Amino acid sequence: MRAPPDFFEYREIADQPGWYTWDMKDNTRFNTQVMGPMMVRQEGEKCRLRMLPEHRHTNLQDMIHGAVTLSLIDISLFSAMHVLRKSEAGMAVTLELSTQFIGGGRPTEPLDAVVEVMRETGRLMFMRGEVVQEDHLVAAFSGLVRKATPKK
Q1: Residue 2: phi, psi to the nearest 5?
Q2: Is the per-residue pLDDT at 67 higher than 70?
Q3: Bridge partner residues of 100 (DSSP)
């Protein structure tokens, strides 16, 4: 797979075959500061983005905070753009995001957003997916992303 331009650190993880890093090169940005390290892989026609929750990602119920789940979902749309469609993700924007929370996320195991592209037009990408922890469903979502405007 080709590497995204200067925005992301995207390289194969040596001790985890098939997984690639999906981290911001600028570690002062939201993704790195709030979410921490993430990894991504393609699974057939789907893309799986994984984060490893920490105590800082929990709410007062000791579950993964909903804002963390929403952030993972939003970031997963852009990783899917790159992994599944080789599309420039760095300058794209989320136009719409619909989420249904189904179960609480446990901070003791990886949190994965599994995304598929439903339709792609010249300017838009329609996606849907689920946030899971093994066989536990945390959320379902759909999103609409406007692709980056080509530079003139």
Answers
A1: -80, 150
A2: yes
A3: 140
CATH superfamily assigned to domain 8-146: Hotdog Thioesterase (3.10.129.10)
**Cα gap 139→74, rounded to integer Å:** 13
The CA distance from 121 to 124, in Å, is: 5
Residue reference for tokens 């599994």? 114
The overall pTM is greater than 0.85: yes
Count of helices and strands (H, E) across the chain: 2, 9
- Asked whether 38 and 23 are in contact (CB, 8 A), the reply is yes
Cα 83 from Cα 28, distance rounded (Å): 24
Short-list 151, 138, 149, 147, CA closest to 117: 147
Alpha carbons 46 and 89: distance in angstroms, whole number = 16
Q: What is the mean pLDDT of residues 60-65?
A: 96
Are 4 and 91 spatial neighbours (Cβ–Cβ below 8 Å)?
Answer: no
Rounded Cα distance between 15 and 19, Å, is 9
Residue 147 identity (one-letter amino acid): K
